[in-house]
Design a protein that fits this description.
The model has no long low-confidence stretch (mean pLDDT 96). With 68 residues, this protein is α+β, with helices and mostly antiparallel strands. The protein contains 2 helices and 3 strands; from the N terminus they run E-E-H-E-H. The chain starts with 5 loop residues before the first strand and ends with a helix.
């Protein structure tokens, strides 16, 4: 419950992979979603919230280019 919906299991820089929780523009992450983002970050993954598809694309692009 609450696990991020977008997973990119590709290491870049100091990260083991990327996880994104996609929310609606006015959405609020649940406590479970925030818990997962924190745990993944603690384990060396890039884990972020995105509030639009465009924002998620930007996060993935920057991550794959090694700019994160």
């Amino acid at each position: 419950k609450g696990f991020p919906g977008i997973t990119l299991p590709v290491p870049r820089g100091s990260y083991h992979g990327l996880y994104i929780e996609l929310k609606a523009a006015n959405g609020t992450p649940s406590d479970d979603q925030l818990w997962w983002l924190d745990r993944l970050t603690e384990q060396g993954y890039k884990a972020q919230l995105a509030y639009s598809a465009g924002e998620a694309i930007e996060i993935v692009t920057r991550y794959m280019e090694g700019k994160e």
